[in-house]
Amino acid sequence: MVMIDSERMLRRIRELGEIGINETGERTRLAADDSEKLGRDKVMTWFHEAGLRTEVDKIGNIFGIWETEENRGRDAVMTGSHIDTVVNAGRYDGTYGVLAGLELVQSLKEAGVRPYRPVAICAFTNEEGVRYQPDMMGSLVYAGGMSAEEACRAVGTDGTILGEELSRIGYLGEREAGFLKPFAFVELHIEQGPLLDAEGFQIGAVEDLQGISWTQVTIEGAQNHAGTTPIAYRHDAGVAAARVITFMRERCLLPGSRTLSTTGCFALEPNAINVIPSRVSFTVDIRNPNEESLQAEETALDEILRIVAAEERVNVTSRRISRFKPVRFDEGIVRLIEKHAAARGLSCRRITSGAGQDAQNMALLCPTAMIFAPSVAGISHNPKEYTSDADLVACAGVYAGVILELAEKRNP
Ligand code: GLV
Ligand code: MN
Ligand code: MN
């Protein structure tokens, strides 16, 4: 059974979690910003300390590669996750997967193990998609779903250009994205939802992942006086936006619906108490595990945008800024996860990832699956995100067993 240095892994999770905490105590490491650079520097230092070959590719993905003279050139078992965060984030989302990957490789290396295949840990660029869209960008580019040049031209919510920011922080690399050919990809992550914790399972064997559609909407009405303008005379961009949001929420509540719709960004202009809003810009994040259902929701959104434009007499424009189909993971690796959980006497359930993940893009390249650790009360994208040390360690043990078995495999 693979033994990892749990204390070292936990210490590094805590240490990386301190990076990007601002004056008000919030942890924010947006893709390619100054805080994320410090996180990258830390991870690269740890890769070097572990004696790994490090690489950076043309979209800024960073790699720590463990290879021996005998296995160099063979398709690698790839793993990892991301170290960028949302705004005011938790400690574990993404970083757990990167640091557990590092720990398992370092522990195996120190134990003198020489696997048949190289193992590469990756921290992908801009998984969260908060600053630049689409999300999961580094893995999307790695898997060939978007060119590095196009991704580097992405304009951020703050007006910056991703390629320029990567260059500024010293992480615009030379390697072509996709330079390492993966034999398999396994990502370890916290669940970020309530199921494992609520049902008392220690391990999630992730068998699929729901589709994601992001739309940026702008509604333009007419600025006018709140006290003098009768309702019938208004072109109220705020009311139009509110109608869209509540309409999408009602669709989520229809019997049998598995849709989740969220408006996480919402900006009113001029944003004054006694002024009818002239302009609203907001986002709609729609998710569903079924592609046809997701398409039906996109059609419904387009339709309600047309209706409010006509009925509220406002101008509506919308742009799809991110789109990922649902993904089914590799059944063989899902079974391997179940086997290693059982071997350690840990309770395991199959589960769907509600969150977007780099693994969904890597699944385009090679057999892929994910392992989830329980998130206490299902809280995530929140500083209160928490997974107990015992669960982090137990899950990392299963993960280590799975990665080593894959790294010893001759054939798919
Ligand atoms: C990433 O965390 C996402 O699911 O939006
Ligand atoms: Mn994540
Ligand atoms: Mn996240």
- Cα separation of the termini: 22 Å
Low-confidence stretches: none
Ligands and ions found: glyoxylic acid, manganese (II) ion
State the helix count: 12
pLDDT averaged residue by residue: 98
Strand element count? 16
The proportion of strand residues reads 15-25%
Radius of gyration: 23 Å
Strand and helix order: HHEEEHEHHHEHEEEHEEEEHEEHEHEH
State the helicity in percent bands. Answer: 25-40%
So what's the overall shape? globular
Q: Strand pairing plus helix content: what structural class? A: alpha+beta
Largest sheet: 9 strands, mixed
State the main characteristics.
binds glyoxylic acid; 412 residues; 5-stranded antiparallel beta sheet; 12 helices; alpha+beta; globular; binds manganese (II) ion; 16 strands; 9-stranded mixed beta sheet
Briefly summarize what is shown.
The chain is of the alpha+beta class. The protein has helices at 6-17, 34-49, 95-110, 137-142, 148-152, 162-168, 195-199, 237-252, 291-312, 331-343, 358-362, 389-407; strands at residues 53-56, 62-66, 76-82, 119-124, 182-190, 203-209, 211-220, 224-225, 260-262, 266-269, 275-276, 279-288, 315-324, 327-328, 348-353, 368-373.
